[in-house]
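Figure 6 in text form: structure in, sequence out.
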């Protein structure tokens, strides 16, 4: 198949591109490099440096004639979405519609969308929560991700474009950008390896469900199957407090600086942990890399990348 990956120079998208190429697919990466890096793009992938809001997006789709689109290009900071909601909507909603319209006009058979289990549900009342949990986002980022899911439902109902929504919990692993606001494991790792000040949100009691990149990539391979349609959590169903993450990483890096805390930010959820029963029951998918193993694998990557 010929597969387009928007945001394919970023953390998750570039790892997926590598796997798809290894499976024998033709891969085309579209990325504006605002968050991604050319060094992430694997050999063998064709690259267009283009924003998903650019007028030439349709022309690229017409020239390439994609079978599948993996839509990963996004504004990914919850805090930025709170500060400038219109900017979040411009990329995550309007940009997505530009992708979907280009797909509709060129006969794309399926769209795989990277959504956010950590934000579309809002403050959970069920732990771990299933895909049937109510959607009550507490940030514009969560609102935009959920809105795009509903647009995909529309494109399926009206234009019969198949889709899979993968709702990720907190993804971590190789190639994650440690210089952004998202991706606490990558941020902590780099700061600890460089013996820099590291700050814990609130009192460290907020919890997240951390899923390793290889398990996420496997879910995308399964999503290429036309029969895998709808919304699926990609998670571990294990809830880990932020303070535990800090302690694990400090031990791995021999970080000795004292804990420092900063106030909670607007839009931050207190607890997030999701069930993966739905994708498991349909495909057999299960998270294979547990947290401690995943942290060790991630440390190996950053030891090679960090200048320490």
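Output sequence:
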């Amino acid at each position: 198949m010929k597969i387009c990956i928007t945001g394919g120079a970023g953390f998750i998208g570039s790892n997926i591109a590598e796997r798809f190429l290894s499976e024998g697919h033709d891969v085309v990466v579209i990325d504006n490099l605002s968050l991604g890096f050319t060094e992430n793009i694997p050999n063998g992938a064709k690259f267009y440096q283009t924003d998903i809001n650019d007028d030439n997006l349709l022309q690229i789709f017409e020239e390439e004639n994609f079978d599948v689109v993996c839509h990963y290009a996004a504004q990914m900071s919850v805090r930025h979405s709170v500060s400038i909601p219109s900017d979040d909507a411009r990329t995550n909603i309007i940009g997505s519609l530009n992708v979907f319209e280009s797909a509709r006009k060129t006969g794309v058979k399926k769209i795989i969308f990277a959504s956010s289990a950590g934000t579309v549900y809002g403050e959970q009342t069920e732990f771990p929560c299933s895909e049937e949990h109510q959607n009550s986002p507490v940030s514009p980022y969560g609102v935009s991700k959920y809105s795009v899911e509903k647009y995909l439902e529309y494109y399926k109902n009206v234009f019969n474009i198949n889709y899979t929504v993968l709702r990720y919990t907190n993804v971590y692993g190789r190639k994650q950008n440690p210089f952004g606001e998202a991706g606490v494991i990558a941020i902590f790792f780099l700061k600890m390896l460089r013996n820099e000040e590291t700050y814990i949100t609130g009192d460290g009691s907020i919890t997240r469900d951390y899923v390793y990149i290889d398990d996420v990539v496997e879910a995308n391979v399964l999503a290429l199957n036309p029969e895998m349609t709808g919304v699926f959590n990609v998670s571990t169903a294990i809830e880990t407090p932020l303070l535990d993450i800090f302690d694990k990483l400090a031990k791995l890096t021999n970080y000795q600086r004292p804990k420092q805390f900063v106030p909670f930010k607007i839009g931050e959820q207190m607890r997030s942990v999701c069930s993966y029963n739905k994708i498991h029951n349909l495909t057999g998918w299960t998270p294979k890399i547990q947290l401690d193993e995943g942290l060790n694998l991630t440390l190996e990557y950053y030891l090679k990348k960090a200048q320490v």
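Caption detail: The chain has a mean pLDDT of 95.
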